[in-house]
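Quick bug: Tektin output formatted oddly.
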Amino acid sequence: MLPVKPALRCSVSEWNNNNLQLWAEAQQQRQVSGEIRQECRSLRNETHSKTVWDEKETSRRLTERVWDVSRWRDLLQSCAQKVDEEMDALTLIYFVIRLIKRS
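Here's what came back:
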């Protein structure tokens, strides 16, 4: 005995409507996907630009800070040297005065 051919689940017009609905939904999802990819691309480019700008700004500020610290270090070394020279001169004067008083 031959099996009986199953009956159609839906009519041709229903099948066409379902396919049209699936196609429209797929189109909408592709559109949303494209928009999301474009937003991601834009955000990635914006983030890269901001990162490059921030790195340059940070490097500039760090360079200025290094220059300032070097300038202050040199100034403090010069002042320390002058203080040492003055202390040496005062010590010499002190010993000269003590020597004169003893004589």
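Actually, after a second look the formatting is fine. The chain has a mean pLDDT of 93. Closing.
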